[in-house]
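Here is one chain, start to finish.
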Amino acid sequence: MNLDPVIWFAVFVVSVTIHEAAHSTVAYLGGDRTAHAGGQVSLNPIPHMRREPLGMVVFPIVTVLQWGFPMGWASAPYDPRWEERHPRRAAWMAAAGPGSNLALGILAFAALKIGLATGVLATPDSVNLSRLVTSDAALAGALGGLLSMLLSMNLILALLNLMPVPPLDGASAITLLMPDDLARRYREMLRGSPLAWIGFIAIFFLFGKIFWPVFLTVAGLLHGASYG
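Its structure:
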């Protein structure tokens, strides 16, 4: 029985829950209690699923069964008036989501490295999103697959959400690199503009060109080999 779809869905739910909880927690620490009131300052996936049942349950299940990989979305509520008053805090809130995915990816990478160093896991002839390592032992192979999916999923979420185009987190997070006045004007330009369509177009046409070279580089760093 192929359990990959089940594992992929579980990895998706965990990764997205942590992403949204990071947004919500940083907003709460910055003075916005909106997400906290909705229960999103939590690693329990239920409040996040309840807020976005289509994006966190229905669509991921359909896509993982259809294509073998889950796709979906989620969101953390926030107070726009708080964002206007505290643009830099709001930018940190935006950066927290992909930052949490980057941290999860690093942990998965480290665990895979340990498995390779101890001989529990081995280097495969080729890599893909589901299998960055191999093993003759069933349990070790299953663990390697889980860690591979965790690394792949969080690499995708981190890179995708750091793209500096609306409606992605990077469009707000990039203002951390701007002076306050410029950041405020930039936010005003994005608010209510049709620029979100640029983000969707960028995702469709550009993300694969960004992701696969990064993924293969990470695989190369994992194994000390070249993939591509």
